[in-house]
TrEMBL record:
UniProt GO cellular component terms: nucleus
Signal peptide limits: none
Biased amino acid composition, Basic residues: 43-52
Single annotated GO MF: ATP hydrolysis activity
Coiled coil start-end: 624-651
Protein name as catalogued: Protein MICRORCHIDIA 6 isoform X4
Organism of origin: Arachis duranensis
Residue ranges, compositional bias (Polar residues): 33-42, 53-73
Domain (Morc S5): residue spans on this chain: 366-502
Annotated stretches, region: Disordered: 1-73
């Protein structure tokens, strides 16, 4: 292959005068496109876009099932007008795809002999920097989990809801060249024009980075088809991002061949937007390294998209450590699973273990259908996710909680309003060992069942929460959050929520409240010296300067039911120990021996804090009484107003009756 055939689609000389072809264009196609243009005028999509409604039932046998399309069909018209692709592009219908990468294991695919001299070098390459093909692999390693990469691609389809997208399809299809499984992701959003396609598939733009990391994490190669309609002009673009092509040809830079077409729906003219030289070389690369062997087959994929949308086909899917496909399409014909993580021995488990393994918290790790059901907190009813031909039923985790409570959390930033945290016991508790918080960011699940406490001795077992945290930023792969101070404070508060909820509600499920080793009931302690206040075990959330909400009276009474024995055991052994505590921070004097003075200071501090908290509790109780009294007064006033209203209404009716009698000249009824 010549150097001239290696075309980097980000080059500036690609925007030459578009070649045109005098081809017939059906008037029905143009009219259908005009109707679609009303809702897509002026749209420039962000990231990648992949949308088309295909016949899902036949997608296992065909790369893209055929269906009626009233918008545009140009593959039949082009049979007599195809541009030649040159001698080197003669890999047409009978040409098999080039050999795949020697290593099909994702985590090993970035290793190769760096001593190999690239066959193709850019002229004057020393004058500027290139992005090496290995960056495709290293960039994709940000996704440790295959489902996280799929979710990244689905996010782009969900973003297109604002442009009229009504569905996204995720399915298994077959590579026409070798019949190997490939992954299809397609929707009917606004699609991408040529410039948006370049930004999506080129490097140096923030647009489309999720597309590149997501697709390269799932397979070695991806081909993208997109249609975009704007002001009566229908553009259709095809781009190929092939790690196999670049590594097999030993390129020293990333090369992304793309071809673009344009259709004027008014005149019916059809042309190419690349200059002819680039078009021929790019098409030649596509036909050799993509699953398709002719331009007709490529255009057929565009026909099946519809008037607008994008279709992504990821092929040469990665293997796992067992040399099996990482994505398992055979275990469940209506699902996509992660091979190796599927629980195939469920039948051999006990009933308790079976119930535990079948819970959403465990199944989402290997079942894409389960993961997608909780991926978004809410979606418009007009939008559906279709997996392997079946609609994914969305599931709200908060709907399954027993004894739910709703707690306001105020982030430690002045520009954020309080958010509601839903917390409760999972409905299968106490039989299942599931717990943790599900943290969403802008409607998207980032951390599923995130365990914030250690759950030793069952404290916190079965407690599940749901929180929408838009005030913290997710990481690059959207599988975690940036470890900022805001995140640390949130984590600390969620720990407190877990323990507080457990302590107040664990008896409802038959659990016994665990007492820390350092705490015993008050009635088991020796009598306290006269005038001595027993310190209570305090939770950090009850400190007077905390920014979190106050603890309820029920929780406060439970905390007052225990004390710190370690702080008191030496003091109770002293015969002559005495102390006095004033309400205005009076001096506290003790007769304890010198080695106990430091411990006594800690006890004194706890007593002071306890006194302050008790005073605050009294204030809250007084305020509560005042509010209750006010509510009673308002209810009484409302009742009086109702009585007065009824009286006035009766008078009005009586006056109406009298007026009627006067007008009619009839005496009023007795």
């Amino acid at each position: 292959m010549d150097t001239a055939e290696i075309v980097d689609l980000s080059s500036d000389d690609e925007g030459g005068e578009a070649g045109s072809r005098a081809l017939h264009f059906d008037s029905d196609i143009a009219s259908g496109a005009k109707q679609q243009n009303v809702t897509n005028r002026g749209h420039t999509p962000k990231h990648y876009r992949s949308r088309s409604r295909s016949n899902i039932q036949n997608s296992e046998e065909n790369m893209s099932p055929s269906r009626p399309n009233s918008c545009h069909s140009c593959s039949g018209d082009l049979k007599q007008g195809l541009l030649p692709v040159g001698d080197d592009a003669g890999h047409s219908d009978s040409s098999p795809i080039c050999a795949a990468l020697p290593c099909r294991h994702f985590w090993k695919a970035g290793n190769y002999d760096n001593g190999l001299v690239p066959k193709v070098r850019v002229p004057n390459a020393g004058n500027y920097l290139n992005v090496h093909p290995l960056f495709l692999h290293s960039n994709a390693t940000s996704h440790k989990w295959a489902f996280g990469a799929i979710a990244e691609l689905l996010d782009n389809a969900v973003d297109e809801i604002q442009n009229g997208a009504t569905y996204v399809i995720v399915d298994r299809i077959s590579n026409p060249k070798d019949k190997s499984p490939a992954l299809l992701i397609q929707d009917d959003g606004g699609g991408m024009d040529p410039e948006a396609m370049r930004r999506c598939m080129s490097f140096g733009f923030s647009d489309g980075n999720g597309f590149k990391t997501g697709t390269m994490r799932l397979g070695a190669d991806v081909i993208v088809f997109s249609r975009h309609l704007n002001n009566g002009i229908l553009t259709q673009s095809i781009g190929l991002l092939s790690y196999t092509y670049m590594m097999q040809t030993q390129l020293d830079r990333i090369v992304v061949p793309m071809v673009h077409y344009q259709i004027n729906t008014s005149s019916g003219s059809f042309g190419i937007l690349n200059d002819q030289e680039h078009f021929i070389s790019n098409l030649s690369i596509m036909l050799r390294w993509s699953p398709f062997t002719s331009e007709i087959e490529l255009l057929k994929q565009l026909d099946e998209i519809g008037c607008h949308g994008t279709k992504i086909i990821i092929y040469n899917l990665w293997f796992n450590d067992d040399s099996n496909l990482e994505l398992d399409f055979d275990f469940d014909t209506e699902d996509i699973c992660i091979a190796g993580d599927i629980k195939k021995e469920v039948d051999a488990l006990s009933s308790w273990e079976t119930l535990n393994e079948q819970h959403t918290a465990n199944r989402l790790r290997y079942s894409l259908r389960v993961y997608l059901s909780i991926l978004y907190l809410r979606l418009p009813e007009s939008f559906t996710i279709i997996l392997r031909g079946q609609v994914v039923d969305l599931h709200n985790i908060a709907d399954d909680l027993q004894y739910p409570e709703f707690i306001l959390y105020k982030p430690h930033s002045s520009d954020e309003s309080a958010v509601v945290t839903t917390i409760g016991f999972v409905k299968e508790a106490p039989e299942v060992n599931v717990h943790g918080f599900n943290i969403y960011h802008k409607n998207r699940l980032i951390l599923p069942y995130w365990q914030v406490v250690s759950y030793l001795r069952s404290r916190g077992r079965g407690v599940v929460g749901v929180l929408k945290a838009d005030f913290i930023q997710p990481t690059h792969n959207k599988q975690d959050f940036e470890r900022t101070s805001l995140f640390a404070k949130l984590e600390h508060r969620l720990k407190e929520m877990t323990w507080e909820y457990w302590d107040c509600h664990c008896q409802l499920l038959g659990y016994q409240k665990n007492r820390p080793k350092s705490q015993v009931p008050i009635d088991t302690l020796p009598p306290k010296p006269p005038g001595f206040e027993i310190p209570v075990a305090l939770n950090k959330s009850t400190y007077p300067h905390s920014t979190f909400e106050q603890v309820s009276p029920t929780k406060r009474k439970e905390r007052h039911g225990s004390m710190d024995l370690h702080k008191m055991k030496k003091q109770t052994r002293e015969q002559d120990f005495s102390t006095s505590v004033g309400c205005n921070d009076e001096n506290i004097q003790t007769t304890a021996c010198s080695e106990d003075q430091e411990e006594d200071q800690g006890t004194i501090h706890l007593i002071q804090v306890n006194t302050e908290l008790h005073a605050r509790c009294l204030e809250f109780e007084k305020t509560n009484e005042e509010l209750c009294h006010k509510v009673t007064e308002l209810r009484s006033k409302i009742q009086d107003a109702k009585l007065e209203y009824n009286s006035l209404l009766s008078q009005v009716h009586y006056q109406d009756l009298m007026l009627t009698c006067i007008v009619d000249g009839t005496p009023p009824a007795a």
